[in-house]
Amino acid sequence: VINCIGSFTSLGGSRMPNQVTAAMVEASQHFVDMHALQEACGRRLASLCHAPPNYTAFLTTGAAAGLALTTAACITGEDISKVRRLPHISSLSDKVNVVMDAASDTRWNQVISSTGACINMIGTPAEPMTEAGLEAELSGPRRGNHACVIFFDVGAASENFLSFEKLLSIAHRCGVPVIVDAAARLPPRRSLWHFTHLGADAVIFSGGKQLCGPQTSGFVLAKKELVRSMALNASPNELTVCRAMKCSKEDMVGLVAAVELYLRGTDEDEFFKFDRTLGVLQRGLS
Questions:
Q1: In whole angstroms, what is the distance from residue 41 CA to residue 102 CA?
Q2: DSSP state letters, 76-135
Q3: Residue 132: count of CB within 10 angstroms of its CB
Q4: Is 0.85 topped by the overall pTM?
Q5: pLDDT class for 95, splitting at 50, 70, 90?
Q6: Cβ atoms < 10 Å from Cβ of 197
Q7: 94 or 248, which is more confident?
Q8: Taking CA 77 as the corner, what is the angle to CA 161 and CA 184, rounded to the nearest 5 degrees?
Q9: DSSP single-letter state for residue 234
């Protein structure tokens, strides 16, 4: 395959540097306490990504798993009885609604709904969610029953959408956490700390794309109380809806190594490599 489109799951993600595969091989030779490893890797990623003191990270099996885990965590909090009832939420009286912009990336709705969440789409595919529309939803009849608002960072196309800052202000004023899907928003490297510094409750990244980590990896930078709830809904715990999203010790260690390596580089170096590769392809096809 001649890859001319970048790091896509359908093409196997990215190519891992030797430092990443070496870290994974080393991890494969040891037994570990998976809870302790998750916490240690989370602290390291939060430090690398300049997260505020009240944040840490949770490692996942990709960005889609991050969406499921953060949604589940927002529904259950740290209530074990709720964790064990997902995805059957008919007996849960609160915080089961997830708000999304109907004009944003809806490809992951099934993943979000797998937790039992009820998705409330605001706007239409042609008309993005407005400030008034979000206000009406969060302060309307379902007030108090919202688990979270999910914001998809759409990069250059964002000028037609409600700004993140306005969305965050409205949601937090109504007591609703905001989850940012920034899976493919690298580069620039500043995306790793941009949204947490603005106050997002959680920001999701893919590990197997531009970070050049394991394809089955990702992580969520989130406020510590939300990470505690994510951990309750995740493997190695057994009675959870997200048990199948099992992040291995090799993936965890490999992802940390990939982020460390990525942050040693610069955006300028990365863009130069893109241009050089495109030049080689152009000459070869001429």
A1: 35
A2: HTT-HHHHHHTT--TT--SS-EEEEETTS--TTHHHHHTTTPEEEEES-SSS---HHHHH
A3: 11
A4: yes
A5: confident
A6: 12
A7: 248
A8: 35
A9: B
**Sheet with 178-181, edge to edge strand ranges:** 55-60, 218-223, 202-206, 178-181, 146-152, 97-101, 118-122
Nearest in space to 58 (alpha carbons), one of 76, 78, 38, 75: 38
Which among 252, 277, 260, 196 has a CA at the least distance from the CA of 61?
252
Distance in angstroms (rounded) separating the CA atoms of residues 36 and 48: 18
Rounded (to 5) percent helix, strand, coil in the chain:
45, 15, 40
Nearest 10 degrees: Cα torsion 256, 257, 259, 262? 180
Q: Which DSSP category does 10 fall into?
A: G
Phi and psi angles of residue 210, each rounded to the nearest 5 degrees, phi first: -70, -20
pLDDT for 178-190, tens place per residue? 999 999 899 999 9
Q: Longest Cα pair distance anywhere in the chain, in angstroms?
A: 64
Q: Is 76 exposed, middle or buried (0-12, 13-18, 19+ CB in 10 A)?
A: buried
Letter for the amino acid at 186? L
List the one residue out of 271, 214, 269, 265 whose CA is nearest residue 60. Answer: 214
